[in-house]
Structure of alanine--glyoxylate transaminase:
Amino acid sequence: MNDLHDRHRRVLPDWLALYYDRPLEITHGEGRHVWDAQGNKYLDFFGGILTTMTAHALPEVTKAVSEQAGRLVHSSTLYLNRPMVELAERIARLSAVPDARVFFTTSGTEANDTALLLATAYRRSNTILAMRNSYHGRSFSAVGITGNRGWSPTSLSPLQTLYVHGGVRTRGPYASLDDTAFIAACVEDLKDLLGHTRPPAALIAEPVQGVGGFTSPPDGLYAAFREVLNAYGILWIADEVQTGWGRTGDHFWGWQAHDRNGPPDIVTFAKGIGNGMSVGGVVARSEIMNCLDANSISTFGGTQVTMAAGLANLTHLLEHDLQGNARRVGGLLIERLRAAAAQDPGVREVRGRGLMIGIELTRPGTDEADPDRAAAVLEAARAEGLLIGKGGGHSTSVLRVAPPLSLTVAEAEEGAAILERALRGTR
Ligand code: PLP
């Protein structure tokens, strides 16, 4: 154990996940690469943790942040804040939410917490529908609605949460059904649930489950759910913390693949928009956002320096069509990874959309998860200069690939070749 690792262990919580037997200290980055304290270079196929959306040390973001920091870092929400208004205007437009209001937070957890506050106040109900296997953050309320059991065994959240089938297509009671029958079964399950409870305030769902192993329901599930939700006046909250900003390639927001009936009632976002700066937030139509009878502040939400990062990062993303790049390069990468895993009896599935690709490992010939092999693949890839992620909670045997959206074809080929060797070496 090196000195920093030892000091980390003595002062930080045991439950703070740390990758690798010999954890890395990353000291700098550029483009799709990062370097550790020993000077080793790595291709970053996890984009920080889906936070480096465009590229490490993107010059426009660095310039915007340093210029803003030289003028003013923060003034609080008690005063008018030009970059905050400008970023809110752009996100409101991009969200397509009618008469949208945007509230900035410092994390995805706080964004979801705010969405829950809004939904429960608006609907006057503290019952929430959430998806099995979901992850929504680690505040008291977010853990309380998180379906991924690995994260919430100790929660005593006062929210009543009802878990809905459908987030995971490949496991669970309806796994053998085709897509249409699967959606019909999940809708019946939802109706059945609603027949036995006070009307919940909202359904919260990740369009593609992130921590849960990059699993996606069949397209159309949330549109079918919505018809049922509308009949009960239940709000639909899309947690776009991992799926927003074009990461899934075909769509700017993950919900667009699943629900053609227009935007959800509430959208939450974080991770990539600040390119590593702590920017999260909530979009909701004004009737919902303004239902709180409060006169409140957010001390660090929307600080000038983080908003400057968000604006520069979003401008770069749109001007360089990084969503299109995610679709094209992601399409190629998933094909390469499928080919690499084709003969591997321990790979159950290579799945994904755009630059959000999961490789699920199971013990050969069984349905049993194989977290030891996943950890071994991470180590083997790292030894060859490639960083990837894995799922959390009960999805730790899913390898997660989510590079910055500017990934080049050559980098995709290089990373796929390393992963192919890492898979072969750990069979
Ligand atoms: N929602 C989703 C879908 C997430 O993946 C995460 C984090 O991984 C969160 C919420 C929580 O975000 P944060 O870690 O910024 O609090």
Q: What stands out?
A: The first strand starts at residue 26 and ends at 30.
